[in-house]
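Weekly structure sync - notes
Attendees: PM, LS, DV (DV joined late)
Agenda: review two folding runs queued last week.

Item 1: First target. Sequence and C-alpha cells pasted below for the record.
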Amino acid sequence: MRIGILCHPTYGGSGVVASELALSLAENDHRVHLFSHDMPPRLARAPGPVEVHVAQGSPYPLFHSTPHDLAIMSRVLDLHRSEGLDVLHAHYAIPHAISALQVRSAAAEAKLDPLRVVTTLHGTDITLVGNDPSYAPLTRYAIAASDAVTAVSEDLRLRTTDNFEGVPPCGIEVIPNFVDLEEFRPGAGRSGRPSAVHVSNFRKVKRVPWLVEAFALALEQLAARGSDAELVLVGDGPQLGEARRVAHQRGLDGHVKFLGLRDALPDLLSPADAFCVASTEESFGLSALEAMACGTAVVGTRVGGLPEVVEDGVSGLLSPVEDLAGFAGHLASLLEDRGRSSAMGAAARERATALFDRRRVVEQYESLYRRLIEGRHAS
C-alpha cells in the first residue's frame, strides 16, 4: 500500500506513535511517506526506509508565522499527483486531519486517484485543543468527514462522542498505542539505592512539581524505616523550573536528578523500581507502556485511559488524581519492597506483550487501510 502520514515532530505520544507506525509499515514493505514541519526525533535516529518530507514553507512579511501547514498540504498533493497515495493518515485532529481532508478534496477536483483519510485521535486534540470553542466546530467536521476515525483508548472514544454531539460511538474504532518489545525490554538486575523515574514534556497536565512533592512524602516514610531512594526526571518543558524549586525547597537536591531530554529511554526505564505518572489527563499513557515493556511497575493516577494500560494491583498501583498521600504511599511501598516491585514489573511486561505488541497493533492499522481501499468504511 502507498501510505502518507501527517504528524507533529514531537517527543510526545502522537509524534512517537506516528513515527513508529511509519517505520513498522515500511518494514512490512509498504511505501510510506511521512510529512511534518520538522524531523520527528524517533525518525531522526532510525535507519528504516520511510521517506520523510519536511515542509516548512517560505517566510513572508504578511504572515505572523510561516504557514507550514499549507506547505505540507501542497507537498502531499504534489506527491499524490506524481506517485499516488492510497491512504493519508492524520495523527491529531487539528491541524492534520483538516489538512488531509483538504488534500483529498483537491485530489478529487483534479480527478486524481481516490485518497482515503484516516484520523487518529490522541487525546489533547479532543480534550484540550479540539474542545476549545475556537476549534470545536472544525474538530467536529474533521471527525465526521474522515473516511475512518480511530482513538487510542476506549476512554478517549467515549469522551469524543460525549464532547461532540452527533458523533456516533460506532464511528470511532479503538486501536491502542503500541510498543516495540525488542527495543523496550528488561535489562540487568536492579542495584544501588531504589529509584523511581518519570518521563514527560513537563507540561502542566503532567504535574511534575506535584510528583516531586509526592516523592518527598514517600522519602520521609522510607527514611523513618531506614531506607533511601532517588527520583530521576527525564524531559524538559514549562514546569521544569518549578519542579527544581520544589525539589530544592524540600531538601531533595541529593535525591532528585534532572536529566533533560534523552533518547536512550530503555536504559533509563529498565533499572527503575517504579515509573511515575502524576498526570491530571492521560488518554493512553505511552510512556507508562514503554516502562511496562521494560519490566518496570507503574505508580500512577487513575485518569483517562491509563487504567486500560495499567492493571491496578497487578502491573502497577493507581490512586485518585488528587490523592497525594495515597500516591506517595504507593511509591514508598514499591521503593521499599523490591521483591514486590519486581513481581509487578514482570506482570507489566506480560501485559505489554499480550495487549500492546507493536506487530499486533500495526496489523490492525493495515486491516483498516485495506478495508478503506476496498471501499468499505470502518465501523
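Item 2: Second target, run right after the first with the same settings.
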Amino acid sequence: MENVIVRIPADAEKIIAILEQAGYEAYVVGGCVRDSVLGREPEDWDITTSASPEQVKALFPRTIDTGIVHGTVTVMLNHVGYEVTTYRVDGVYEDGRHPKSVTFTRSLSEDLLRRDFTINAMAYNPRTGLVDLYDGIGDLHRGCIRCVGNPTERFSEDALRILRALRFASQLDFAIADDTLSAMQKLAPKLSLVSAERVRVELVKLLGGKRPDMLITAFETGVTDVILQEWNAMITTSQDNPHHFCDVGRHTIRTIEAMHKEPEYLTANAHERMIYDMAMLLHDAGKPMCRTVGADGREHFYGHPAASAEVAKKVLRRLKFDNDTTALVTLLVRNHDCRFEFKPDCDFPKVMRHITSRIGLENMHYLFPIMRADIEGQHPDYRKRGLVRVAQMEEEYRKIIEKQQCVSIRNLAVSGRELIALGYAPGPALGDALSRLLQIVLDDPSANTAERLSELAAEWLSED
C-alpha cells in the first residue's frame, strides 16, 4: 500500500494517544484523511474508535453528547471540538435517509463499509498508518467518485448521498464512476425524502465548486426532476439570438464559471460567494416562460429579469434560505440587466443615481461582477461593448460615493421629523412626501438642502 503520511493536529493526535493508552483503537477518518492526501486543509478532524461512548466520556474531562445515540461524543480540547464516534454498523434505513438503529462494533472494517464513497472511507493512525480497504487512494489519484460496495445499496440507504456525489465531483473536479452514476439515475426519485435544508447545503457547495457543470449531470440523471425542476426548463430552452450561442442552462453554467474568476468573488467570504452563485444560477430562470419568436425567427425574452426574480424568490423560499438572502438575491436577479436602462442620449449620472437608489448603495458592489459574469457567458461579439458599459456604471458609482450624493431617504437633508413639524401627519402621506423629495434629489443632487426640500414639502401640503 502507498506510504501516506497525514499530519494530524496535536490535540487530535493526543485524543488518539489517550484512547490507545486505555487499550482502544482510534483513527482519524473520512473527509479529513481525504483532504490531507489531496493537500487541502481539513475543516474538521473526526475520530473513530473501538471505545464505546461511555468509555470515551470516562477518559476526557470535557465532552458533549452531540450524537450519543449514534455513538458520537465531542471531546473538547483547548476550546476546539473533536467528534469521536464509536465503530458502528448501521441498521435498516426505513426512511431512505437514516438508519432505524445502529450497532456498535469492535471492527474498523465494518465501520468503513457503511460509508458512502471510497475516498471518504479511509482511516489513519500515526502509528499504524493508512487503512484503505476500498482503494480510496487509487480513486483520489484517478479523480473518481465511487461508492463503497454496491452503489444501489448505498443510495438506497441514504438518498442524500446522490447529491453528495455530485457535490464532491464539483468540489474536487472528479468524474463519477459509471456504476455509481447508473445507481444515481435509478434512485434519483428517492431525493424527495431529503429535506429542503440538506438540498440547499449540497446545492450551494456544488455551485461553489470547480465543476458547476455537474448541474448538467444532475439533469441527465433525473436529480433536478426532484430538487430543481426550474433547471430542467432552463437547460431545454434554446436561445436563437445573436447575443447567445447556447441554451439558457449552459449559458448559466458559463456565467457561474466566469463569476468564480471575478476579483470580488475571489476575495469574498463564504456567505457572499453563496449570494453570487445563487444570483448567477437564477438570473435567467424566468427566460423559459418569457420566450417569444419574432418575425425574423429569432427568439426573444422580453421581461425576463422580472420573471426570473419571481422564480428566484420561489426557489429560494422552497430551499429554506433565510429572508435576507432571499430578498438580496431576488433584488440582484431583478436588476442584473439594468445596463440596458441607459439610452443613447440619456443623462448617464442621473440614471445611475436612480439605479443605485433602487438597488441600494450597500448592494451595488454585488451587481457589477454579476453583470460582467453574465456578459462573459454571452456571444463573444457582444462582450466588449457590454463590459465597457459596466465599467462606465462602476465609475459613476464611485463618483456617487466620492461626492456623497444622496440616493436614499435616510440621506435627505430633511427627515420625517422636519416634515411633521411642517404639518404632515405620520403615515402614508408622510412616506409619499419623502419619496417624492428623493426622486427630485436623484434628478438634481443640488436640490438636497433643508431649505429647498422644506419649501417643496410645504407647497405640497398647501396644495392638499
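Discussion on item 2: The first helix runs from residue 10 to 21.
Action: LS to circulate a short write-up before next sync.
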